[in-house]
Amino acid sequence: MYNLRIYLAMLVFGLWLLICSPASALTCDMSQYNISPVTGTKVDYGNTRWPVNTIQISDPFGSRYLAKNTSTGCYDYHRGLDLQGTEGDTVYSIAAGTVYIVQYECKKGALRCGFPNGGNVAVVEHPLTFKFNDKPYTKYYSVYLHLHNFDIGNNQKLKQGQPVVLGSPIGKLGRTGASYDHLHFEIRLGDINVTERIDPSVNPLYFLEEVHNVYRDTNNYTVCVSKSPLTVSFSSSNQELDFNEIEIQSAGETRKINFSTKEGIDLTQVDNSSPYGLVTINPADFKFGTPEYLIDFQFPGLDENFTRIFVRDIWGNGLEITPKSL
Ligand SMILES: [Zn+2]
Predict the structure, then answer these.
(1) Taking CA 186 as the corner, what is the angle to CA 62 and CA 240, rounded to the nearest 5 degrees?
(2) How much distance in Å is there from the Cα of 154 to the middle of ligand 1?
(3) CA end-to-end span of the chain, whole Å?
(4) For residue 40, what is the DSSP state?
């Protein structure tokens, strides 16, 4: 009986390892490839500030490793930026606008809940005329989850329809609907609703300024290519969490995965598994203080003799990898 229990424990642990194995740093020989920088253009999305004063990113935007196998799997798609803090820290509106939603934490099992597990949620609508991925927009939304409360000072509470300016308090940081004190912060373009076909969330770093020791767009990226199956490993420092896109050209076929436009991502699978259609996205675990951001893309079934690979950040800066001609 005792042996059986040990055996079962080992089996369960083995399965866990099998299912949840995060990306690990690859050491690879890139001498057979040319690697050259590519540059894009930074876009100004208006005057903003970060939503908290002390900025500690505990989870970046995009495909995320969950560290343990939950009921939904080892991965999910993180639609925002997590900023860890202390309960009661003031949360600020990142720009001028109008309070669009004030949602108190939904009761467990509530049939209608706009933000399941979001806890206390505030949403601010910001009027802005801009283009994103060539599509015109007239507004965007900033979304603040897990708020401790909606206290905005002077015994006032945040109210729907209330106008705010850049830096208006909208509530206090907390852990409602979450397991630790942090602000889950999102930017959604044009529409607030997330459906299986449309996901308006983009990397919030498009809308936030570089901050010393927090977010620095230095374009210092490392890439590693290995085969069987064709795997592209990307890493950057923990201050450069704006990875956005991989494009691979092989045998006349182009595959592109873009975290913000969701091109190449199967929106029906983003919450529960690593295979996103024709690619397996395998991010490493990330917490505040993790020294580097690391993510693998595996392309099973794609001809390994690729002609070109691009990795790009949100601004289009990145690297181009081509095989050296024989
Ligand atoms: Zn989050």
Answers:
(1) 50
(2) 29
(3) 61
(4) -
Domains parsed from the chain with CATH numbers: 23-42+217-323 (2.60.40), 57-206 (2.70.70.10)
- Which residue in the block uniquely carries the two structure tokens 């001609």? 325
Per-residue pLDDT reduced to its tens digit, 32-77: 999 999 999 999 999 999 999 999 999 999 887 766 555 555 677 8
Cα(305) to ligand 1 centroid in Å equals 37
* Backbone conformation region of residue 2, classed left if phi is above 0, alpha if psi is from -120 to 50, else beta: alpha
| E strand residue ranges, 60-156 | 62-70, 73-78, 81-84, 90-92, 97-103, 120-132, 135-147
Structure tokens at 207: 């809308």
The one-letter amino acid code at 168 reads S
Q: Provide the CB-side half-sphere exposure for 219 (13 A, CA).
A: 16
Cβ of 227: how many Cβ atoms within 10 Å? Answer: 10
Residues 6+ positions from 114 with CB-CB distance below 8 Å: 101, 103, 121
Centre of ligand 1 to C-alpha 281, Å, is 18
Size of the chain in residues: 326
Query: Does 11 score more than 70 pLDDT?
Result: no
The tokens describing 91, both together, are 């949360």
